[in-house]
Amino acid sequence: MFIEQFLNGLGAGAMYALITLGLALIYGVMKILHVAHASVYTAGAYMGLYIFLSTGSVLIAVIVSMAFCSVLGVLIERYIYYPLLKYPPYVPLISSIALLIAIEEFCRLVAGPEVRTFPAALPFPSAVVCGVTISSTLMAVYCLTVIILIALWLLMTKTELGLAMRAVAQDMETAASLGVNTQRTVALTFVIGSAIAAIAGILMGIYYNQVYPMMGEVPAYKTLALIVVGGMGSVPGAVLASLLLGLGETFLIGYANIPLPRDALAFIAMIVILMWKPTGLLGKR
Fold this sequence. Notes:
Elements: H1 2-30, H2 37-55, H3 58-81, H4 90-111, E1 127-129, E2 132-134, H5 136-158, H6 160-170, H7 172-177, H8 182-208, H9 217-230, H10 235-255, H11 265-276
Antiparallel strand pairs: 1-2
Helix pairs in contact: 1-5, 1-6, 1-8, 1-9, 1-10, 2-3, 2-4, 2-8, 3-8, 5-6, 5-8, 6-8, 9-10, 9-11
């Protein structure tokens, strides 16, 4: 039971990490709390579901969903956030919350309020660890999360785009004065973050076999708690906080039967971390 719960908690943490990655990237570059990132994740899940039902191919569904969410992310950045950068930070935040509600309601009007099943099988082998069977879907979550994290690390540390993203995250105006195309860098950050959100939405839909309009509502606020716990703008911190939350929820709520709502744990952790280390686990002063 312990090993099974550990593997399930690791899978939950990996999915939290995929949702939180884009939010941490965008906050690091633009210093905007992109709450509507969760609605991009929801839109990606719906687009993946419809493409899969039309073609029967998970790969085509993932590619089309990533492209769709990338375009959606760029449109959000260009026509909603960019004009609001001159205002205090709470203005883009309020706009982001409004956008989250608007996209959720649009999904509800178009696809209906009912829960839709996502009957897809992912082409990954199952495995047995210490007598516990890891399903092909959970193996897909593990493998894809590791692949995305390695690709993102290589992008951030080994490419000119990664250097530009780190420069813009430190100081956008100075980076622009030194020749960095900040507008292009920000747009590509939204492309990357939104594409990862699409993958997360499809994986979550397949793993739980359900897609519904409000599926991004809890992740929207839980990911905010995770980037605070990890350290505002710290991608490694966001990943670490996500994995710890997934394991914590599984062990404390599912294994130890602590009488707490599952979704409350992220906010309790946020309060404790802010009291103990206000910069977050891996945040800087």
